[in-house]
Amino acid sequence: MTFGPSFGEELARSGLAGLPLGWSDTGQIVGRANLTAEQQATLDRVIAEHVPLNGVKAQALAEIDSRHAEVTRRYLTPGVDYSRKLREAEYVADTETPDPALCPMLMAGVGITVPSSGNVQADLKAIAALVRRRDAETAAALAPLDHVRHAAKAAIRAATTTDEIESVLASTTFRGL
Asked: Residue 138 burial (CB < 10 Å; 0-12/13-18/19+)?
């Protein structure tokens, strides 16, 4: 057992503040003999319930990431490589006559994502414009959610008590479109 920085606070909340009692980070208790049987029982309960703050922080950070992922999944299609698709769209936008062989993700949408015009170059340009527009829309929708995630994680990392961490978790909400 190791004691995290919140251990003293937990002792104080349990009524053990000010008693001739000490502890080390490695879990050694000094002064137990100075306590009454009731105080020793309270100390044992506090020790049993104690979770070092770093572990609490790690769990809270994972929970924030999980909540964020749950909301952002609404905006993303599973299995789609958006970065590859966007790279292809940028290539098409920046190239006068893009090579269709270099754009397999975009070519897969010709006649489906956009109606085929019979002109591969025009079709690639149309799909590229659509992908770039959707990327901008997605970024605009996800940016506020990312801000909430980063702010919550910063607050958790800065927290010095489990109560502060619980407060951050309770007040953090991700609202999507």
From this structure: middle
